[in-house]
Amino acid sequence: MTNKSPIIAGMDVVFRALADPTRRSLLDELFRKDGQTLSALEERFSMTRFGVMKHLKQLEAAGLVVTRRRGREKLHYLNPVPIRLVHDRWVSKYAEPWVAALSGLKDRLEHPMEKVFEIYIRTTPERLWEAITDAEIRSKYNFGSRVTSDWTPGSRFEMNHPAADGPLGEGENLEVDPPRRLVQNMVALWSDDVKSEGTSRVTWEIEQIDDSCRLIVTHDQLREGANEELYGGWPMILSGLKTWLETGDLLTTPGSLMYG
After folding, report:
1. Where are the domains of the chain?
2. What is the pLDDT of residue 208?
3. CB 3.0–4.6 Å: which of 49, 99, 135, 204 could bond 182 by disulfide?
4. Any residues with CB less than 8 A from the CB of 135 and at least 6 apart, and which?
């Protein structure tokens, strides 16, 4: 029997999780309102608390749901990255470039104005950190843009593209703890629409799990109804990061080439 690649094996888990209508309904609820507690989700379904919890655990195992603690509450978030990977493999070849931005996955951010993305990558924390902070590597999965900085706490960073007249983004490195955690304030500058949004925050968290890394990217401090350009590209960026680190290949879907 032929061994499956990590990407294909991960897709099998996603498809199994999506096969159940109750689990799809749970994702619909998180699509409607992100960051819900188990109690809030339980009210939407005619089943026991244990039943809802069991379905949520399977969605977590597939990477389709991410949980975060806030005080005594455990909040559940829809994670679109696995769906992005399925899209990249079979759908985007036939799609128009504008579809790949994934802007339709969430119409609006709702309280608590936080978006969480999770992905597992077969690599080391050191290699993953390098891919996040090295300008040349970053350009391979970040729409061709390079992010430059000296990567010290309190230092500045700037995002540029060879075809752009000026910076596409800038900000401050609030926390720099290689190869585990990077927290940044960011001001997006790539369009007039996003310039007016002001400063938001991006947190990169790396955790080694056996021969892989769990990467969580949290984009928060966004106003309610913030422009989707600010966060809609994360699934494509993280899919490209995973593809490059695990295979050495670049994503060539329309979205990944949009700004190339």
Report:
1. 1-78, 80-257
2. 96
3. 204
4. 146, 147, 148
CATH superfamily of the 80-257 domain: START domain (3.30.530.20)
Q: How many CA atoms lie within 13 A of 4 on its CB side?
A: 8
SS3 state of residue 246: helix
Give the dihedral sign, CA 134/136/140/143.
Answer: positive
3-state secondary structure of 251: coil
Quick one: average pLDDT of 43-49?
A: 87
Any idea which architecture 1-78 has in CATH? Orthogonal Bundle (1.10)
Whether this prediction's pTM lies above 0.70 is answered by: no
Q: What is the per-residue DSSP string for 17-59? A: HHTSHHHHHHHHHHHHSSSB-HHHHHTTSSS-HHHHHHHHHHH
Cα 169 off chain centre by: 18
Q: Phi first, then psi: what are they for 81, rounded to 5°?
A: -60, -45
